[in-house]
Amino acid sequence: MLSTKDRTYTFSEQIRAFLASNFYIADPDSLESDTSLLDQGIVDSTGVLEVIGFIEETFGITVEDSELLPENLDSIQGIARYVMRKRN
Question: Is 41 left (phi over 0), alpha (psi -120 to 50) or beta?
Fold first, then answer.
């Protein structure tokens, strides 16, 4: 069984791959895990809906309206941590 750190890394890589294939990122490998996706213009308000759909479909969780917060959805690291909390 994977450790929490390993699962977070795996989730982060899945999230990075999704973002790279669905949004314009000049160099996906150079995108820091804690970079704000909104501030960098990678994801806009419509893109957030795509990210939510990805999270729900890929990780089998439901994103509640009360969870639509920047700390949950504005960075690769934030999304990975959010998924970890919801899956435990």
Answer: left
Q: Confirm if 25 and 19 have CB atoms less than 8 A apart.
A: yes
Among 24-38, 50-64, 73-87, the minimum mean pLDDT is found in 24-38
Q: Does residue 1 carry a pLDDT above 80?
A: no
> Alpha helix locations (H) across the chain?
4-22, 45-59, 70-73, 76-87
First to last CA, the chain: 14
pLDDT of residue 17: 95
Percent of the chain scored above 90 by pLDDT? Answer: 78
